[in-house]
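User: tokens in, sequence out, please.
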């Protein structure tokens, strides 16, 4: 059971790193769009990136989904990736460490 949890946590962490990397790519693509052309600046939205990745147009059925799809892609994927990395980190038993550190001096 513990090994399964470790595998799941590592998988979630790797997926979070990939999403963070995707957010860096979309932010750099948005910077190229902003500085590179003579046309007006248009942001790269999450719905456009999902459409490129999935191949289908993403339809927002609820208000919350509309808000998520209208966010800039780097904000959505970056925050999701950092959240996944934070949630899947390996935690130390801090109480036991503090106890050992305190009584080691006596």
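Assistant: Sequence out:
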């Amino acid at each position: 059971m513990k090994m399964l949890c470790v595998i799941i946590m590592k998988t979630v962490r790797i997926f979070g790193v990939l999403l963070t990397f995707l957010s860096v790519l979309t932010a750099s693509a948005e910077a190229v769009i902003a500085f590179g052309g003579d046309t007006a600046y248009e942001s790269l939205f999450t719905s456009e990136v999902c459409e490129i990745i999935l191949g289908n147009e993403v339809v927002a059925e609820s208000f919350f989904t509309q808000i998520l799809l209208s966010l800039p892609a780097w904000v959505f994927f970056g925050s999701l990736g950092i959240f996944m990395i934070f949630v899947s980190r390996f935690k130390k038993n801090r109480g036991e460490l503090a106890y050992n550190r305190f009584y080691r001096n006596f």
